[in-house]
Backbone:
Protein backbone atom coordinates (compact mmCIF):
# COMPACT_ATOMS: atom_id res chain seq x y z
CA UNK A 1 0.00 0.00 0.00
CA UNK A 2 2.76 2.44 0.93
CA UNK A 3 4.85 2.00 -2.19
CA UNK A 4 6.50 5.41 -1.73
CA UNK A 5 6.68 5.03 2.02
CA UNK A 6 9.46 6.12 4.30
CA UNK A 7 11.79 3.90 6.29
CA UNK A 8 11.74 3.93 10.07
CA UNK A 9 15.31 5.23 10.16
CA UNK A 10 14.53 8.14 7.85
CA UNK A 11 11.41 9.02 9.89
CA UNK A 12 13.42 9.01 13.13
CA UNK A 13 16.15 11.11 11.56
CA UNK A 14 13.59 13.62 10.33
CA UNK A 15 11.94 13.91 13.76
CA UNK A 16 15.33 14.23 15.44
CA UNK A 17 16.24 17.04 13.06
CA UNK A 18 13.04 18.99 13.80
CA UNK A 19 12.35 18.09 17.43
CA UNK A 20 15.60 16.83 18.86
CA UNK A 21 16.62 13.32 19.87
CA UNK A 22 15.48 13.57 23.46
CA UNK A 23 11.89 14.58 22.69
CA UNK A 24 11.63 12.04 19.93
CA UNK A 25 12.60 9.23 22.33
CA UNK A 26 9.95 10.31 24.85
CA UNK A 27 7.23 10.74 22.25
CA UNK A 28 7.99 7.40 20.61
CA UNK A 29 7.34 5.45 23.82
CA UNK A 30 4.18 7.33 24.81
CA UNK A 31 0.69 5.78 24.94
CA UNK A 32 -2.17 8.27 24.61
CA UNK A 33 -5.93 7.59 24.57
CA UNK A 34 -8.26 9.80 22.52
CA UNK A 35 -11.96 9.52 23.40
CA UNK A 36 -13.95 10.60 20.36
CA UNK A 37 -12.73 10.95 16.77
CA UNK A 38 -14.64 14.06 15.72
CA UNK A 39 -13.42 17.63 15.38
CA UNK A 40 -11.24 17.43 18.47
CA UNK A 41 -10.12 13.80 18.37
CA UNK A 42 -9.22 13.59 14.67
CA UNK A 43 -7.12 16.74 14.85
CA UNK A 44 -5.45 15.75 18.14
CA UNK A 45 -4.53 12.40 16.58
CA UNK A 46 -3.00 14.04 13.50
CA UNK A 47 -0.86 16.36 15.62
CA UNK A 48 0.36 13.54 17.85
CA UNK A 49 1.13 11.21 14.93
CA UNK A 50 3.12 13.97 13.20
CA UNK A 51 5.06 14.57 16.43
CA UNK A 52 6.04 10.91 16.49
CA UNK A 53 3.90 9.76 19.43
CA UNK A 54 4.27 6.01 19.29
CA UNK A 55 0.92 4.63 20.42
CA UNK A 56 -2.59 6.05 20.03
CA UNK A 57 -5.76 4.38 21.30
CA UNK A 58 -8.65 6.05 19.48
CA UNK A 59 -12.24 5.24 20.45
CA UNK A 60 -15.44 6.30 18.66
CA UNK A 61 -18.71 4.61 17.63
CA UNK A 62 -19.66 6.95 14.78
CA UNK A 63 -19.34 7.02 11.00
CA UNK A 64 -18.01 9.85 8.82
CA UNK A 65 -20.76 12.19 7.58
CA UNK A 66 -20.76 15.11 5.14
CA UNK A 67 -21.43 17.55 8.02
CA UNK A 68 -18.11 16.49 9.60
CA UNK A 69 -15.97 17.76 6.75
CA UNK A 70 -15.90 21.43 7.87
CA UNK A 71 -13.74 20.55 10.88
CA UNK A 72 -12.83 16.89 11.09
CA UNK A 73 -9.78 15.23 9.53
CA UNK A 74 -11.65 13.15 6.96
CA UNK A 75 -12.13 13.19 3.20
CA UNK A 76 -15.24 13.15 1.03
CA UNK A 77 -14.50 9.61 -0.18
CA UNK A 78 -14.56 8.37 3.44
CA UNK A 79 -18.21 9.25 4.11
CA UNK A 80 -19.93 6.22 5.62
CA UNK A 81 -16.74 4.65 7.02
CA UNK A 82 -16.35 4.15 10.77
CA UNK A 83 -14.42 7.23 11.93
CA UNK A 84 -11.69 5.30 13.73
CA UNK A 85 -11.06 3.16 10.64
CA UNK A 86 -10.89 6.22 8.36
CA UNK A 87 -8.66 8.05 10.84
CA UNK A 88 -6.26 5.12 11.18
CA UNK A 89 -5.95 5.12 7.38
CA UNK A 90 -5.28 8.87 7.28
CA UNK A 91 -2.71 8.66 10.07
CA UNK A 92 -0.92 5.81 8.30
CA UNK A 93 -0.56 8.06 5.25
CA UNK A 94 1.11 10.72 7.42
CA UNK A 95 3.44 8.19 9.00
CA UNK A 96 3.36 4.40 8.98
CA UNK A 97 5.17 4.39 12.34
CA UNK A 98 2.36 5.46 14.65
CA UNK A 99 0.81 2.38 16.26
CA UNK A 100 -2.95 3.09 16.18
CA UNK A 101 -5.51 0.99 18.07
CA UNK A 102 -8.84 1.90 16.49
CA UNK A 103 -11.78 0.86 18.68
CA UNK A 104 -15.37 1.13 17.50
CA UNK A 105 -17.21 1.70 20.77
CA UNK A 106 -19.69 4.13 22.29
CA UNK A 107 -18.14 5.23 25.58
CA UNK A 108 -20.71 5.39 28.37
CA UNK A 109 -20.75 4.89 32.14
CA UNK A 110 -20.51 1.12 31.69
CA UNK A 111 -18.22 0.65 28.69
CA UNK A 112 -15.68 3.15 30.07
CA UNK A 113 -14.65 0.71 32.80
CA UNK A 114 -11.29 -0.91 32.09
CA UNK A 115 -10.88 0.98 28.80
CA UNK A 116 -7.55 2.67 29.52
CA UNK A 117 -5.16 -0.13 30.42
CA UNK A 118 -1.97 1.13 28.79
CA UNK A 119 -2.48 4.87 28.66
CA UNK A 120 -1.35 7.35 31.29
CA UNK A 121 -2.76 10.33 29.34
CA UNK A 122 -6.42 10.49 28.27
CA UNK A 123 -7.75 13.17 25.90
CA UNK A 124 -11.48 13.86 26.15
CA UNK A 125 -12.68 14.70 22.64
CA UNK A 126 -16.46 14.29 22.74
CA UNK A 127 -19.05 16.74 21.43
CA UNK A 128 -21.77 16.53 24.10
CA UNK A 129 -21.30 18.31 27.43
CA UNK A 130 -22.82 15.39 29.35
CA UNK A 131 -20.33 12.95 27.80
CA UNK A 132 -17.42 15.25 28.67
CA UNK A 133 -18.61 15.44 32.28
CA UNK A 134 -19.18 11.67 32.48
CA UNK A 135 -15.62 10.89 31.32
CA UNK A 136 -14.11 13.58 33.57
CA UNK A 137 -15.90 12.22 36.63
CA UNK A 138 -14.93 8.63 35.76
CA UNK A 139 -11.24 9.38 35.32
CA UNK A 140 -10.96 11.72 38.31
CA UNK A 141 -12.81 9.33 40.63
CA UNK A 142 -11.29 6.03 39.45
CA UNK A 143 -7.92 6.89 37.91
CA UNK A 144 -6.43 9.80 39.85
CA UNK A 145 -2.96 8.84 38.57
CA UNK A 146 -3.90 9.34 34.92
CA UNK A 147 -3.70 12.74 33.28
CA UNK A 148 -6.98 14.00 31.82
CA UNK A 149 -7.07 16.69 29.12
CA UNK A 150 -10.56 17.95 28.32
CA UNK A 151 -11.87 20.34 25.63
CA UNK A 152 -14.75 22.69 26.37
CA UNK A 153 -15.91 25.91 24.71
CA UNK A 154 -15.20 26.33 20.99
CA UNK A 155 -18.49 27.18 19.26
CA UNK A 156 -19.30 30.51 17.62
CA UNK A 157 -17.10 33.15 16.04
CA UNK A 158 -15.40 34.55 19.16
CA UNK A 159 -11.72 35.48 19.23
CA UNK A 160 -9.16 32.74 18.78
CA UNK A 161 -7.29 34.23 21.73
CA UNK A 162 -10.15 33.41 24.12
CA UNK A 163 -9.10 29.76 23.90
CA UNK A 164 -6.74 28.79 26.69
CA UNK A 165 -5.24 25.81 28.50
CA UNK A 166 -5.94 25.74 32.22
CA UNK A 167 -4.66 23.33 34.84
CA UNK A 168 -7.57 22.74 37.19
CA UNK A 169 -5.89 20.31 39.59
CA UNK A 170 -2.88 18.02 39.68
CA UNK A 171 -3.83 15.78 36.72
CA UNK A 172 -6.84 17.62 35.27
CA UNK A 173 -6.58 20.15 32.44
CA UNK A 174 -9.16 22.03 30.38
CA UNK A 175 -8.64 23.57 26.94
CA UNK A 176 -11.15 25.96 25.38
CA UNK A 177 -12.89 29.26 26.10
CA UNK A 178 -15.00 27.39 28.74
CA UNK A 179 -18.25 29.11 27.70
CA UNK A 180 -19.17 28.99 23.98
CA UNK A 181 -21.79 26.24 23.88
CA UNK A 182 -22.73 24.67 20.55
CA UNK A 183 -26.35 24.55 21.76
CA UNK A 184 -26.41 28.34 22.16
CA UNK A 185 -24.22 29.49 19.27
CA UNK A 186 -25.16 29.37 15.59
CA UNK A 187 -21.90 27.95 14.36
CA UNK A 188 -19.12 25.48 14.98
CA UNK A 189 -16.12 26.60 12.94
CA UNK A 190 -13.26 24.29 12.06
CA UNK A 191 -10.75 26.95 13.05
CA UNK A 192 -11.83 27.26 16.69
CA UNK A 193 -12.24 23.49 17.06
CA UNK A 194 -8.75 22.97 15.60
CA UNK A 195 -7.28 25.54 18.01
CA UNK A 196 -8.70 23.63 20.98
CA UNK A 197 -7.44 20.35 19.51
CA UNK A 198 -3.99 21.89 19.07
CA UNK A 199 -4.05 23.09 22.70
CA UNK A 200 -4.88 19.55 23.82
CA UNK A 201 -2.25 17.92 21.60
CA UNK A 202 0.39 20.48 22.57
CA UNK A 203 -0.31 19.87 26.23
CA UNK A 204 0.24 16.13 25.68
CA UNK A 205 3.63 16.87 24.14
CA UNK A 206 4.51 19.37 26.85
CA UNK A 207 3.63 16.87 29.60
CA UNK A 208 5.69 14.17 27.86
CA UNK A 209 8.70 16.47 28.13
CA UNK A 210 8.17 16.39 31.90
CA UNK A 211 6.97 19.97 32.22
CA UNK A 212 3.51 21.52 32.21
CA UNK A 213 1.54 24.55 33.32
CA UNK A 214 1.02 25.42 36.98
CA UNK A 215 -2.39 25.04 38.66
CA UNK A 216 -4.48 28.19 38.21
CA UNK B 1 -17.56 32.15 52.91
CA UNK B 2 -16.86 29.50 50.31
CA UNK B 3 -14.62 30.21 47.35
CA UNK B 4 -16.49 28.91 44.28
CA UNK B 5 -14.83 29.33 40.88
CA UNK B 6 -12.82 32.23 42.24
CA UNK B 7 -15.68 34.16 43.88
CA UNK B 8 -16.54 34.31 47.59
CA UNK B 9 -20.06 32.91 48.03
CA UNK B 10 -22.16 32.70 51.17
CA UNK B 11 -22.70 28.95 50.86
CA UNK B 12 -21.21 27.53 54.09
CA UNK B 13 -23.63 25.03 55.67
CA UNK B 14 -25.37 24.22 52.40
CA UNK B 15 -25.03 20.94 50.59
CA UNK B 16 -23.55 21.06 47.11
CA UNK B 17 -26.88 19.85 45.69
CA UNK B 18 -28.73 22.78 47.26
CA UNK B 19 -26.17 25.24 45.96
CA UNK B 20 -26.38 23.77 42.44
CA UNK B 21 -30.18 24.14 42.44
CA UNK B 22 -30.00 27.72 43.68
CA UNK B 23 -27.35 28.62 41.11
CA UNK B 24 -29.30 26.79 38.36
CA UNK B 25 -26.35 24.56 37.45
CA UNK B 26 -27.05 21.33 35.55
CA UNK B 27 -25.43 18.49 37.53
CA UNK B 28 -25.14 16.26 34.44
CA UNK B 29 -22.65 18.66 32.81
CA UNK B 30 -20.21 19.25 35.65
CA UNK B 31 -17.24 17.89 37.54
CA UNK B 32 -16.69 19.29 41.04
CA UNK B 33 -13.43 19.54 42.91
CA UNK B 34 -13.32 20.62 46.52
CA UNK B 35 -9.95 21.65 47.94
CA UNK B 36 -8.28 20.01 44.93
CA UNK B 37 -10.08 16.66 45.20
CA UNK B 38 -12.89 15.34 43.00
CA UNK B 39 -16.26 15.03 44.72
CA UNK B 40 -18.01 11.87 43.48
CA UNK B 41 -21.47 12.46 41.98
CA UNK B 42 -22.98 10.20 44.64
CA UNK B 43 -21.83 12.64 47.35
CA UNK B 44 -23.41 15.83 45.97
CA UNK B 45 -26.35 15.56 48.35
CA UNK B 46 -24.16 14.70 51.34
CA UNK B 47 -21.34 17.19 51.07
CA UNK B 48 -21.89 20.26 53.26
CA UNK B 49 -19.76 23.30 52.44
CA UNK B 50 -17.48 24.45 55.27
CA UNK B 51 -16.22 27.97 55.75
CA UNK B 52 -13.00 28.42 53.75
CA UNK B 53 -13.65 25.60 51.25
CA UNK B 54 -12.19 26.15 47.82
CA UNK B 55 -14.58 24.72 45.23
CA UNK B 56 -14.12 24.47 41.47
CA UNK B 57 -17.22 23.60 39.46
CA UNK B 58 -16.12 22.75 35.94
CA UNK B 59 -19.15 23.38 33.76
CA UNK B 60 -18.72 21.63 30.42
CA UNK B 61 -20.30 23.03 27.26
CA UNK B 62 -21.05 21.19 24.02
CA UNK B 63 -19.07 21.16 20.79
CA UNK B 64 -16.17 19.14 19.45
Residues:
Amino acid sequence: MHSNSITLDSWRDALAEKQGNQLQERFMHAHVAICGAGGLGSNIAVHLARAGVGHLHIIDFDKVEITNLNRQYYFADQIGMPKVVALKENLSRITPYCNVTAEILRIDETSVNGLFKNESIVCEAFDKAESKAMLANHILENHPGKTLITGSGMAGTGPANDIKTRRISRNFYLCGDESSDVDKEDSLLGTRVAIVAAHQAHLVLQLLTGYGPAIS
Amino acid sequence: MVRINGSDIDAAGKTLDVYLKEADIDRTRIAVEINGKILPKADYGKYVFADGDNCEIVNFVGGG
Notes: The first strand of chain A starts at residue 31 and ends at 35.
